Amino acid sequence: MNILVVGPSWVGDMVMAQSLFMALKTRYADVAIDVLAPAWSRPILEAMPEVRATIDMPVGHGALQLGGRYRLAQSLKEQAYDQAIVLPNSLKSALIPWMAGIPLRTGWKGEMRYGLLNDLRPLDKNVFSLMVQKYVGLAYPKGTVPSEFQCPQPGLRPRQRFIDEALESFGLNTAARILALCPGAEFGRAKKWPERHYAEIARRHVAQGGQVWLFGSQNDVPACAQIAEAVSSDRLQVLAGQTSLQQAVALMSMVHAVVANDSGLMHVAAALQRPLVALFGSTSPDYTPPLSDHCRVIKATIECSPCFKRECPYGHYRCLEEMMPDQIWQALKQLEVTGAKS
What we know:
With 342 residues, the chain is an alpha/beta fold. The protein is built from twelve helices and twelve strands.
């Protein structure tokens, strides 16, 4: 059984897609899974033992570029795929499997994909209430509902060589307990816990003899610099904007605990089975929670949350401003003792 999966375009979604790959491995003992996805996702996919090969999407997100899609589709014919599973909802994402003549093309009803997908499924969001259920459901015949299958938790396994190389590249050591802080979120400010609160958590951890690593993209460098300035300790290392995704995954696998906003790195930490405190302000864990038994979810309790806005409609950002460091610190301490999920 050869299956081509057309993967999603966001870090967190790609991590959750591993649950689908694991379900396919359970259902078909001899299945080979290749994933067609943006080139940036290769380090994530290479940490998934279920994936045989990663195929870089030749066109950018949202671009049509029929010529590039057609050329790739012709090259894929050699693989003789039995099935394609298309995770994005766009029409464009279904074009390559159709052009490649893959006989069974599975996906949820989305953007006018009649004909492109011949195993087209209507999505009842009241039944498939979690993103991971939406993905894993495509491993099973049409009509199968979440009560009839299990969603395995993602489990990223970075290669030891990448871990050793990343530690050496940044001059890091694991002698003292490492707390990873992920203060960024690509979606917008309304998902970001305040930098001063992160700084307070970092100060407490350093005071107890630990070290702090700050993760994030280039966009998160100002926030991480603000935290570093507030803490002013040689036990704090800013890695945001300096690591590749491969290095970030490798280094995060070595930390002892993580505090993260609702972000791609939150899902990476969960899939690495790191003890995790996940913070939800403008968004909700009801659709895309961290998939781990080693996490504590802290969500805002004010009346206007979740609003799912990039910026606070009222300008006060109370959902995260009023989420105090004491609460997050206590959650970290509880994880150390119990490892329980809430």
